[in-house]
Every structure is written in C-alpha cells, then in structure tokens.
Sequence to fold (552 residues):
Amino acid sequence: MIEELFQVERDAYKDSIIHRIDARVKIAICFAAIIALVAVPYSTMIYTVGALFFLFFFILWCCTRLSFVIYLRRICAIVPLWGIIIFFQIFLKNKYYTEYDVLYSLPLGINIYAQSVEFAFILLVKFVVCISFILLLSSTTKMHEMLEGAARMGLPAEFALALGMMIRYLFVFGYMYRKMNETLKTKCFDAFDRHLPYRYRLRQIGYLIGTMFIRSYEQGERVYTSMLCRGYGRDSFLFVKKKPLRRGDAVFLCVSIAFIIVIPVTIWLSAIRLF
Amino acid sequence: MHLIETRDLCYVYPGDVTALDHVNFIAPRNARIAVIGSNGAGKSTLFKHFNGIFQPSSGSVLIRGEPITKKNRKEIRKFVGLVFQNPDDQIFSPTVEQDIAFGPTNLGLDEETISHRVHEALRVVGIEHLAGRVPHHLSGGEKKRVAIAGVIAMEPEVLVLDEPTAGLDPRGVADLNTFINSLSSKYGMTVIFSTHDVALVPEVADFIYVMDKGRIVASGTVDEIFLQPDMLKAVRLDVPVLPRLLRSLQENGVEISMAYTYADAEQALLRAFGKQL
Fold:
C-alpha cells in the first residue's frame, strides 16, 4: 500500500495534456461527475449515463499516457472496500422497489432477488465511474497542487493547513515504514516465514506497528514545537499564491461541465437507452 | 543590554531529570557563539528556552533585557529563530515555497511581502531552484537549507542552529560554514549553534560555551577553550586535529605558532618551514 502511494506520486509527476491542466479544473470535473452520477435516479438509465461518462473518462485517461493496467490495478485495490457493500445488496430489499421476485433461494431463508441484483448493478456502475474519476484526478495531479487548487476554490484555511501537513507527513512516514521494513529484511525477518513461530511473527509485527505509533507521536510533538517557533497560532494558514485560470483550462472546464450536465438530463428527459 | 541572557537557568524534565543546572549564558549583538558538549549535555534544552518553547523551572531568560511572557512570545519567536537538528521536524508544508512562507504568514504580513521574504530567504540560502519542489524529493543538505530559509524568512536577529552539520557531507558542511559566517559579517546577525564536531568550531565561532550534564563547565574564546585539553576530554570532547598537531610539534621543539583554523594553520606551517604564501 505504501509503495502504491509512491507509485501514485510518480504517475502524478509524469507529463501529459491532462497532467498540465490546472488542478482546480480537474477537481471541479471530478466532483461534477460524482454529483451528476449520484443525482441520477436509481433506474436502468444509469447504464447509459454510466457508459457515456466512462467513455469520457476513458478518453481523458488515454490522454494521460498512463497505462490502462494501472487504472485496473488501482480500481481492484479498492474492491474490498466497495465490492462487499455491493455484493450484499443482492440479498436485501430496498426502498426503490415495491415488488421483489426471488431469483434464487438459499438455505436459512436467504433469497436473491432480481430487483436487488439490478440495484446492485446500478450501484456498481455508480461506484466504478465515480472512483474512475477520482483515480484520474489522483493519478494526474500532484498532491500539493491538488491542495493548492482546493484552497484556491475556497477550502477552509484550517483544513488546507491540516491537509498540507498530512500530505507532507504521509511521505515522511512512508519513508520511515520503508526503512523499518528494510531493517527487518536486513535481520532476515519475514512475516510470512512459516519456519518462525506464529506468535513470534505476530509479536514482531506488533512491535513494528507500536514503534510507528510512538515515532508518529514523537514526531508530532517535535513538529508542533517547530511550528510554535515559527509563530503558529489560531490564525495560521497555508500560503497559497493567487493564480488566474488559463483560457484553455477554462474552455476545457466549461465543455466538460456542459457534457456532465447535458448527458444525464437528456437521457432522463428523452428516455434514450443504450442498454 | 545583551540580546540573550540566562541567569541561573534551571530546567527539570518530568520524572525529575535535571537537564539544565544554573546556566548563565550571554549572547551579545553580532556574535558567533558555539555551544559544544557531548550528547545529552543539555544544548538543545537550552536552545528551547531562548524563544519560550520551554519555561525555566527556576532562574530566568532575558531577551533584549526582558523576560519572555505570554504577551511578547510571538515577538520573541520572530526575534530568535530556531533551526532544529532534523529538518523533517521543521518542514511540514507540501512545498518548499509554502514552508518558507509559513513563518511570515503567521506574522500577519500581506501577500506581496510574504512573496518577497520567501524569495529573499531562498536567495540568501542559495536554493531558489527548489522553490516549487516537494520536501520529500530533497536531499538531507537541501532540506537543511530549506529549514534555515524558513527561519530566515522571519528575519530574526538571532539565529539558533541545533547541530547544523548533523548528516551533512563535507561540501555541505563547508557551505554551511560560509553561510554562518556571512550571516554575521553581511547581515549583522548573532548566530548561536550547537555541535560536538570540535573541528568546525574555530572556523565559525568567536566564543565557546562548553556544556556537560546540564552545566556550563567552561566559556571563552577559541584559544581559551582549546588550551584546556584535559577539560575537553573530561566532558567527552577533544581538541581539534590542527591545534593538536601544532601543539605536538611545539612540544617536540618545532618553533611554530598556534592556530585553530585551516588558513591560520597553513600559514603557521609555511612560516615554520621558512616559506611564504
């Protein structure tokens, strides 16, 4: 997971037409797409909207010059998070349907309903497309630029400062974790080595996590002291310079937002369906 | 009136660990002061009293003749800039530019002044090219410079550096020496730094405090301190290589004058061998 963090950063430092777009534009498009998808009613029209949005995302991803395998790997990495939620929907009734047809009956009175399966698919489409836009944003925008963009868009100063520090120390602890891991490897420790007693391995991993916590706490204390040395107080905020939006970025933003608004509205009004 | 003065300063850590024991320290204007001592001597603890991070258990700390109070603390932290040993403790913003701007922002300056100070600090430390970089992409020496620039941007009159050479390569140490000297000669700043690298001291200090177990066991000019090898050994330090060599030559009958810096030692050796630069 830590290595993935460094990989995301390496990808964000690559160069492409999408990488060069102002972070504010990418944030706005990402959020607009998510809001639009969430706003689409729970009906099968989401398949059409989702497909068109995914096509839009796919075109943008192709322009990033990043491999599609990277996208697939990242989306799979978060499957356990959202996959389980979606999977369990097929067993549950929900408020969007009045009648339910049993597709399969399982022991202990558990049923799989046709309508629940449909609902799970709708959720799946919404999740996949939303997460795709988030992946596009995170894979093509440097973290500090994303933060600066958010601050310029009105993210409260308190959040910007805290998030800025989080970004900074995410990497500090990433490197710390790497070093500790290297130390364990130097001492020939492998958490999956079956020759070592299970309890011993567990204890060593516990020590590793505990050390990380203690070092985080100590680091936090030292950082706070150094912040005080530089006049930190209630009114402190992250310094972000003003930056006007370039014309090209503004045009791209307008076109994208128009697409994101027009597509769901048109499909909803005209009842056009691709699937 | 001294810029910094401590009178019988004592500090006890929780758990009844005495870190400072009746420390009397004076920092005049435009001075270069080294505080030397082995690990755990109390150097860092002393430094944290200079800008009100630590409150004395007893005794007092006077900045420009005034004690540190809640009211003047911010002003004092602007006046006394403290650079920590580990730059990762001090660089907490996502980019170098934002980190250097942190101090000036807290002083309530306007955007134009902040930008000016940031660029000036970057220029003074010689890292203009790093402005847009993220801290975790920098080397140890570069991070150290960023940490110093972050404090310089607050335009302090006293710069306190805790173990500034720790983790630097020889070139980094040489650059830092030049930089510390320029702060004093060019900008009239008082520079106080701690180290246990005694070879560095003659190059960048006019006055030395020797600390051991929370006490100041000796203070004086470079000559005065390095003429006491037994005292230095007793506190787990040593005389730098060059004066040690020259003393050995003197003891073996070579007529040579004592020198502490590289340039002075070179001249002394050339004179001793009848050559001129």
Notes: The first helix of chain B runs from residue 43 to 47.
